[in-house]
Queue: 3 jobs
Job 1
Amino acid sequence: MAKISVLIADDHEILRFGISTYLSSSKDIEIVGEASTGEECIKLFRETHPDICILDIDMPGKNGIETAKEIRTFKQETKILILSMHINKNMLRDALEANVNGYLLKNTEKADLLHGIRAILKGQQVFSDPISDLMKESFLNKSNHPGSYDHHNITGREQEILQLIVDGLTSKQIAEKLYISPRTVDTHRANLMEKLEVNNIADLVRYAIQNNLVSVD
C-alpha cells in the first residue's frame, strides 16, 4: 500500500520535529520534507509533490495562507491542512478562500491530527471544534430565510443529501441512512455540483457552508 506523503512547514523547529516524529511512527505516513518558511516549503513542494501539506500560518516571509495559494497554482489536487495556534474570522476567511482542506489548532490531540490527515485524503474536510463554531457563527448565524436555497433550484432531497455530505458521510453511508441506493446518491451529488457550479466535493462543502445552505455542528 502506498504511503501518504506529507510535507510539514512550521518555523518552530521543536514543534516541527514533534509532528514529524509522531506522524512517521504511523505505517501509512511518509514525511518527504520539512520547511521553516513559506518559500522553503514551496521549493520542497516542487521537488517532492506530496499528497498533503501541513502549514502553519505564522511563518517568516510568505505566511501559510500565501503559501497555500501558491501551492494551488502548481497542483490543485494537493491537500492542504492548516495547523495553527490562532484562529479568528479573518484567518478563517482567508484560509477558506485559499481552498484549504482543513484547519486544526495546535492543541489538537495527536490522534486527531492523524485522523484528520486520513480523512482529508478521502475527500473530507476537517476542522477543530472552535473553528467549526466560528464557521457557524460567521456563516450560519446570519439572518436565515426558509427558502435560502430556493434560488439554486435545490430540491428537498438534494438539500438533505448536501447536509449529509457536509457532515462527512460517504455515498454508501448516506444511502443506508436515507434508504436509497449509492447510485442515486451519486446522481443527486452530481446534480448539486452542476447546480452550484463546483467541480469537486471540497468545493461543494465549502460553497454550502459559505452560502448558508447547511448547518454545521
Job 2
Amino acid sequence: MKFTDKKAILFDLDGTLIDSAPDLALAVNHMLTRIGREEISPTMIRSWVGNGARVLVQRGLSGQMAMTDNLDPELLEKSLAIFLDFYAKNLCVDTVTYPHVRSSLKILKAKGYQLAIVTNKPYDFIQPILDGLKLNGLFELLVGGDTLEKRKPDPSPLHYACKKLGVSVHQCVMVGDSKNDILAANAANMQSIGLSYGYNYGEDINEHDPDISFDDFADILATLSDINQYDLTKQLQYF
C-alpha cells in the first residue's frame, strides 16, 4: 500500500517511537513506596501505559487495569504529584528508541514531510525526552495529553495538529501502537498506520482497523516515500 498526497505525519510517542515503560514503572513504584504500598511488577505496569499520567497513577493505586471510582481524591492528587516529580527527574534512565526510529525519522524529514508528535503524555515531558534520546530538531509540532481539554482517542488533538501544521486531514497520516491512536484517526477521518510492538493492552492493533500495520518502524518508509527498498536500506545505514 502507498499513501499518496501526504504532507505531514503524526506520531504517537510512548510505544511508537520510544519504549518508556521501564522508567514509567520506576516512577509508579517510587510513588507506591512513598505512600506505603507494595511495589507492582514492571510487566504489569507496562500493560497499563498509554492513557496518560493520571490514568497510570490510578491504575497503580487500584492495582488493576479497570478504572475504579472509589479512590480517595486526596490520595490520588498526592500520588500523582509524587509520580510526576520523580518521573520528571528520571525521564531517560532506561527509556530507549525502538529499532530504526531515529534513522527513519531523519529520512522522512529529509524527504520533506512535516513531522509532529501527538501523545497522551503530559506536554512538559516531551521535549526533554526528545533531547535525551537525540530526537530533537525533527518535529515541527508537539501535542501533549494536556495541550487540549480532550486527548486521544478523541480526534481533537489530530484536528489541532492539522490546523497548526496548515494541512488537511487527508494530507496527514497517524502512526501509533495503541487503539487510542487508531480510534482517534478513524474518528478524524484520517488514514493511519498501526505498529504491533508497543502498548496496546494485549490486543492486536489490527482489531481497530488501521489502514495498514507493521512490526518494524522502518517499514512505514516504503508506504510514505518514493524511494525503492534498495535505496531505503542504504539510507537507513547512512543515518
Job 3
Amino acid sequence: MSLLIPEVGLLFWMTLSFGVVFFILAKFAFPVISQGVEKRNRYIHDSLDAAREAEAKLATLSQQAEALMEQAREERKALLEEAAETKKRIEMEARESALAEVGQLKNKALAEIEESKRRALTEIKDQIVDLSVKIAGKVVSEELAGDKKQKELIDRLLKEEVIYKS
C-alpha cells in the first residue's frame, strides 16, 4: 500500500520539484503567456472598437443616403411640377397665339369682303350710269314729234324709276 500513502522523502522531492518547475514557469513561461493573452485581449478590444466605428459610419452613411434619396425625390417632384407648369404655359401661349391669328385672319377676311362689296357696288353703279347714258342717248335720238309722245315717255321713265327705287 505504499502507492496510496507516500513516504516523507517522496513528498519532499515532489514538493521541491514542483516548486522548481513552478519557479521556472513563473519566471519564463507565465510572462510570455500573460503577454500573449493581453495582446490577444487588446486585439479583440481593438477589433470590437473598429466594428463599433464601422457600424456608426454605416449608420451615418445610411442616414446620408436616405437624406440624398429624399432630396432626389424632392428635386424630382419640383422638376415634375415645373414641367407641368411649363406645359400649361406653353399651351396657354399656343392658344392665345392661335386666337390672335384667327382674329387677324377674321379681320382680314372681313376687310376683303368689304372691299369686294365696295368694288361690286362701284361696278353696279358704273353699269347703271352706262345704262342711264345709253337710255338718255336713245331718248335724245328718238324723234319726239309731239307733246303727247314726250309726256308718255316721261311718265314711263318716272314709273320705271319709281319701281327701281322701291
